[in-house]
Amino acid sequence: MDYSKSWPNLNESQIMLMDQIHQFAQEVVAPVASHHDQTGEFPTANIKQMGEMGLMGMMVDEKWGGAGLDTVTYAMAMEAISAACASTGVIMSVNNSLVCAPINAYGNDLQKEKYLRPLASGQKLGCFALSEPGHGSDPAGLKCRFEKVPGGYKINGSKNWITNGREADYCILFASVNPDLRHKGISAFIVDTKLKGFSVNKLEDKLGITASSTASLFFDDVIVPDECILGKEGDGFKIAMNTLDGGRIGIASQALGIAMCATEASKKFAMEREQFGAPIAKLQAIQFYIAEMTTRLQASRLLTWFAAQRKDQGLPYVREAAMAKLAAAEASMWIATKAIQVHGGYGYTKEYVVERNFRDAKITEIYEGTSEIQKIVIAASELTKK
Ligand code: CAA
What we know:
Blueprint: H1 12-39, H2 44-52, H3 71-84, H4 86-106, H5 109-120, E1 126-129, E2 145-149, E3 152-163, E4 170-176, E5 186-192, E6 198-203, E7 214-225, E8 229-230, H6 236-272, E9 274-275, E10 278-279, H7 284-312, H8 318-343, H9 353-363, H10 371-382
Parallel strand pairs: 1-4
Antiparallel strand pairs: 2-3, 3-7, 4-5, 5-8, 6-7, 9-10
Helix pairs in contact: 1-3, 3-4, 3-6, 3-7, 4-5, 4-6, 6-7, 6-8, 6-9, 7-8, 8-9, 8-10
This protein binds acetoacetyl-coenzyme A.
The site of acetoacetyl-coenzyme A has 25 residues, from helix 4, strand 3, helix 6 and helix 10.
């Protein structure tokens, strides 16, 4: 892909790095994506190599084991990896956006040394445990409890739909001192998943992103040492919301990657497949699909990179990240649906990548805030007196 055509402000080093990442994604990740999709096998080898390449802690300072890159580069890398394998994309996104980012932003030096360094350098993997069986879109009322005990905090409760839950070495956990306090009662903790009382129970059997784990986590009298509280007591909800703002740029980029894969596959198919004595690319119906797919893809890419650029510039980006996630997720689902239409009967079979794209795209409209939640965030920003 020619990245310089998509965004006017890319510098030489971003373009060179993206060429390398794109090449890795296409030569190493893409060839095994179908195998991982069909077997549900976690892409361990690729994640390890991505750690060595600096892709698991892209925006973390080199001082703490990261790659020290900007959010625009992260968004481009997420798109390239997700175009090859969306399961690998979400594993990368959670570790970067939802685990490294909050420790980077709210952790003290001790936490950065002990937890961020191995996470950012890809030696360890993390998960983000906010959602619960009764609290998905409304995390302020979460029920997982903590109580202060000498030397630490005792945690009891359960978490649901946790990406990387089965493999995670560390978990960013949100728990409440008293659910009646709603968001004001929530604190964030870094939990070592080897601690006594922690267990992973149910693994979800999913429609798409099948090679990433989605797990239920249980905390049964888990004692977390004092040093593991992230930020101050009561800061948890704001840490979660702020983290999800960044996460939404990552998932928007994952959605773009899925959409890019479906669009490229459709272009190739349209030029090769012949009906009525000529390639179907000659048919205006197909041309219109391709034109609209590429336009929706580029429009949502610009929104995503705009949100990323604002984050890099230290400007507010809550509304822009929500717009990016909303637009990219819906574009991805639309594009994947039309990609199957372009492929006809072939697109409905597992032989063609668009079948996987269609299943993978759907989740981008759901996790890290559904499309409806993004609309709530955008409307709240538009309808507030400035
Ligand atoms: N940044 C910082 N603070 C924020 C914030 C933000 N983006 N959004 C809200 N807050 C603050 C508010 O200022 C307010 O603070 P004060 O009490 O000091 O005024 C406080 O948080 C409460 O705000 P609201 O009353 O607006 O909160 P709410 O309960 O109405 O919720 C919501 C707002 C936007 C709907 C929020 O609940 C939300 O984003 N829900 C979706 C949750 C979500 O995305 N879950 C995804 C799970 S993670 C996942 O999917 C990961 C995975 O594995 C891939």
